[in-house]
Automatic annotation (TrEMBL):
Record-annotated Transglutaminase-like domain positions: 161-227
One Pfam assignment: Transglut_core
PANTHER family hit by this protein: BLL5557 PROTEIN, BLR5614 PROTEIN-RELATED
Stored SUPFAM superfamilies: Cysteine proteinases
Descriptive protein name: Transglutaminase family protein
Taxonomic lineage from the root: Bacteria, Pseudomonadati, Pseudomonadota, Alphaproteobacteria, Hyphomicrobiales
Coiled-coil segments: none
InterPro entries, A to Z: Papain-like_cys_pep_sf (IPR038765), Transglutaminase-like (IPR002931)
Amino acid sequence: MFIRFGYEIGIDCPQPTPMMTYLSIVPERRGDIVGERGPVVSPIVPMEEITDPHGNTCLRMVLPEGETKLSYDAVIKDEGRLDASDPLAEAVPVEKLPPAWLPYLSASRYCETDRLSALAWKLFGDVPAGWQRVEAICDYVHDRLVFSYGYAQIMRTALEAHEDRLGVSRDYAHLAIAFCRCMNMPARYVNGYMADIGVPESPAPMDFNAWFEVFVGDRWYTFDAKNNARRAGRIPVARGRDAADIPLIQTFGKHQLTAFTVWTCVEADSRLSRSHRSADISLLTPWFSETWSRHVQQRDRDRH
């Protein structure tokens, strides 16, 4: 199947401001893209593509004073399979873990393993280590928290989410990650796109989603404490220890967000048309089409 995804974001800065974005999909999925426009920045500024320590692709630029708009629109080919599952996967002893995965056992900005360890062992210590233990953690976090976009709080940590008993997808992920690490299972945070595939369509505005991955058996597996179900069509954007490692937008100075629209939907074919087929997803604005044309013209001039 084909999935269309993208964004339009507006940012206003009082002065020229350096910025990094974690909006590009993970490198291993780039080969599945069958059509794309962007990323486009208006007004046009130089962009540099870099790779962070976690292997994510980032764009670095300096925004001018005033409003800047960023846009991207793409279609990706996806097999439509549910998240991989292996109920027999066992936890890997710490001493046998690949060295690269050891940082995903430690506390991080939003995942206070030191403050949650005693509770984690009390709740999950009697559950067989490995897949069953991760599922038990997902069940607990799913039942513990109440979801609502109105509960979004950028500074909320895993412990605070547990005590408040509410949150959004990033809070579900942070709490589950913290519990997994307390139980000596490497866990990492993932941000990305996820359409309503095989589930009832949500009336809420589309947004980026957060889930997490745990290293059990001999590989990383996807888990989702918020939905607490295997899903199809996930498109990872970036991975890190928690949300602090992979902010969608990171400015090094003051800024104000003036627009934020995200879309993810199943397409009938691979053609990147000018409009969306889903009524719940915002139409591409005329600004995007006009800016894309100017971007292509400028790119062609630069090449020559």
